[in-house]
Amino acid sequence: MKKIAVVILNWNGKKLLEQFLPSIVAHSDAAQIYLADNASTDDSIVFVQTQYPQIKLIQNKGNYGFAKGYNEALKQVEEPIYALVNSDIEVTENWLQPFMSHFENHPNTAIAQPKLMDFKNKSYFEYAGAAGGFIDQYGFPYCRGRVFETLERDYGQYNTPEKIFWATGACFFIRKEVFWEVGGLDPDFFAHQEEIDLCWRVFNKNYDCYYLPDATVFHVGGATLKTGTPQKTFLNFRNSLFMLLKNLPKHQLIPLLLIRLCIDGIAGIHFFVKGDFKHTLAILKAHFSFYAQIGPTLRKRNTAQRNDYYQVKSIVWNYFVRKKIYFKH
Question: Which residues touch 275 (CB under 8 Å, ≥6 apart)?
Fold first, then answer.
């Protein structure tokens, strides 16, 4: 049995598979590749069966989204390290070697990610994870190489391995035993920020998360809230509140949640003033959805939340008020 399972979640993504599977197949001899399909209605399955018979197929019974889709599929994967890879990722030669070496030599590392670059502009970091993620005290995520909508050019400033807080779900490596120890991805998230929530729960268990720059991949994604759909706005705002309620230390829970709700309200007003009424409505819907699920979400709280989850108190203040648009700790 190989040590790494590269698991690609798919839903009606035949065109992406045609474009990006060749690089993954060419450069992943060290891994077993899986396609986890969320009940696609296009020709994805037939395409993979005929063109790549060496890829193992896992067929979910419905479109379960990112979180539940992976949870269901990974029950059928035996390899000790999961690599959850988006279908719009182009990998590079020997991309798996840094992970194999790091996991073998660092037993406390549970999660890791590569350097994530923009497929459409390959000298720049990519929005979804760049050179590794962090959050501020109020749960706003940012990355080395990407703060809100500002992306950095890669000139080698993040070329050393670094302990990070969260790894990108676009290309996410995790030990199988730890994934199931913390209960996997939270299916109530459906999509967006579920990997940050998972990393936070793993952090609370005192495992490490690393960025490994010797592995580079290119990602097509990169949509921001500014150009996103109201559905993405809804999921991002609601899921961020879920994440805070689940993982904040008990003594900080109520005050930090109240401040975060106020910040969200300011964001809603900002969208309204700009005439983006659908996004204002999406934030309101996100809050009402959160309120309706406070009870079930509270029951998911781990008994040992750590206090040292953030390094910057407010990335919102630093970026929008102090105009610190690049990563710096």
Answer: none
pLDDT band at 328, cuts 50/70/90? Answer: confident
Can you give 88-111 as a three-state secondary structure string?
CEEECCCCCHHHHHHHHHCCCEEE
- The number of residues making up the chain comes to 329
- Residue 124 host element (H or E): strand 121-125
SS3 label, residue 125: strand
Measured from the Cβ of residue 94, the count of other Cβ atoms closer than 10 Å reads 12
Quickly count: other Cβ atoms within 10 Å of residue 31's Cβ: 22
Residue 77, classified by CB atoms within 10 Å of its CB into exposed (0-12), middle (13-18) or buried (19+), is: buried
Rounded Cα distance between 201 and 280, Å, is: 30
Q: How many Å apart are CA 262 and CA 255, to the nearest integer?
A: 11
Q: What is the pLDDT of residue 224?
A: 33
What would the pLDDT profile of 222-239 be if each residue is shown by its tens digit? 433 345 799 999 999 999
Strand 89-91 relative to strand 81-85: parallel, antiparallel, unpaired?
A: unpaired
Q: What is the DSSP string of 33-84?
A: EEEEE---SSSHHHHHHHH-TTSEEEE-SS--HHHHHHHHHHTT--SSEEEE
CB-based contact 175:110 (threshold 8 Å)? yes
